[in-house]
Amino acid sequence: MSAEYMHVGIPVLNKKPGMVYNEWGKFWVNPSVDAYDYKIEYLKFEEGTRFPEILSKQFHVAYKVDDLDHYAADADRIIFGPERLSDTVRLAFVVKDDAIIELYEDKG
User: Fold this and answer.
1) Which of 2, 88, 90, 93 is most deeply packed, by most CB within 10 A?
2) For position 41, which CATH number holds?
3) How far apart, in whole angstroms, are the C-alpha atoms of residue 96 and residue 75?
4) DSSP 8-state symbol, 88
5) For strand 60-65 and strand 40-45, is the pairing parallel, antiparallel, or unpaired?
6) pLDDT per residue as tens digits for the range 38-74
7) Which residues contact 69 (CB under 8 A, 6 or more apart)?
């Protein structure tokens, strides 16, 4: 099993310059985590987002994983997903040891 750090996601109340809208998830996000040295993903969630409210209040740490099911099974609880984003990509948010973790699997 392997997990590679991707970014830290930080919810914000006000849009930052340059944010783009994600219609699927009903949230605003900076276009690239690589724009920041610390790989920060800023998120502003809109009403009706498909994500749980906790993500709009607490930060998360994202990892690219080779086996989402393995890491999800090891979590204390699953708060979103697993959700299939494409033929090769799945996403889930879990809680492990009181931390919110994004699990991103790309089999492409």
Assistant:
1) 93
2) 3.10.180.10
3) 5
4) S
5) unpaired
6) 899 999 999 999 999 999 999 999 999 999 999 999 9
7) 82
Tens of pLDDT, residues 72-94 = 999 999 999 999 999 999 999 99
DSSP 56: G
80: left (phi over 0), alpha (psi -120 to 50) or beta: beta
Provide the residue type at 4 as one letter: E
Q: Taking the model in full, what pTM does it have?
A: 0.92
Does residue 58 contact residue 100 with C-beta atoms inside 8 Å?
yes
Domain count, the chain: 1
Query: What phi-psi label fits residue 16: left (phi over 0), alpha (psi between -120 and 50 degrees) or beta?
Result: beta
- What residue numbers bound the domain in which 60 lies? 3-106
What is the DSSP pairing of strand 40-45 with strand 89-96? Answer: unpaired
Q: Is the dihedral of CA 81, 19, 47, 9 positive or negative?
A: positive
